[in-house]
């Protein structure tokens, strides 16, 4: 791959764009170019894409919003349980804390896989880790008490 001025300028512009615009450029501009390059180059690009597809076939999905909904519902229930335990002499605190901690610990395996094994989505993984730290802090000091 040549590092000529056009490709260097394009790379600089491309890196400065938001992800959705990057995807649009690839889909609307670069993919159609494969039909106009020599067949040998097109085959190399397709082989490279297929290799990446195989490498990342079993990559976990980090759905931060879903995990936030799930864990926040558990934390809300834990908070309600702490209020109910004053009125009733029964609490589900241990069970709810175990469910919450198990959920984020299991998720840590997926975060580890994304970063260490697949070397992708570092910013998303960072946001996920910040959420995990926040949840553990809430269990220890905040809303869950």
Roughly how much helix do the residues carry, as a percent range?
over 70%
Summed up, the helix count is: 6
Characterize the largest beta sheet: strand count, sense, and whether it forms a barrel.
none
Q: What best-fitting shape do the alpha-carbon axes yield?
A: elongated
Overall SS class: mainly alpha
Instruction: Average the pLDDT over all residues and give the rounded result.
Output: 88
How many β-strand runs? 0
Which features characterize this protein?
145 residues; mainly alpha; 6 helices; 0% strand
Note down, in words, how this protein is organized.
With 145 residues, this protein is mainly alpha-helical. The protein is built from six helices and no strands. Helix 4 (64-87) runs parallel beside helix 6 (122-141). The longest helix is centred in the C-terminal third of the chain and has 25 residues, at 93-117. The model has no long low-confidence stretch (mean pLDDT 88).
Question: Could you write a compact summary of the structure shown?
Answer:
With about 140 residues, the chain is mostly helical. It has helices spanning about 5-15, 20-35, 40-55, 65-85, 95-115, 120-140.
Blueprint of the fold:
Elements: H1 5-15, H2 19-33, H3 39-55, H4 64-87, H5 93-117, H6 122-141
């Amino acid at each position: 791959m040549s590092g000529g001025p056009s490709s260097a300028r394009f790379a600089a512009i491309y890196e400065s764009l938001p992800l959705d615009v990057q995807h649009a450029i690839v889909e609307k501009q670069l993919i159609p170019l494969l039909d106009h390059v020599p067949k040998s180059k097109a085959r190399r690009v397709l082989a490279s894409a297929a290799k990446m597809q195989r490498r990342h076939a079993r990559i976990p999905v980090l759905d931060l919003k879903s995990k936030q909904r799930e864990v926040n519902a558990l934390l809300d229930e834990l908070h309600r349980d702490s209020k109910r335990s004053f009125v009733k002499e029964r609490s589900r605190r241990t069970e709810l804390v175990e469910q919450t901690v198990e959920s984020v610990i299991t998720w840590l395996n997926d975060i580890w896989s994304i970063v260490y094994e697949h070397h992708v989505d570092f910013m998303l993984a960072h946001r996920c880790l910040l959420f995990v730290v926040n949840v553990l802090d809430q269990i220890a000091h905040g809303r869950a008490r």
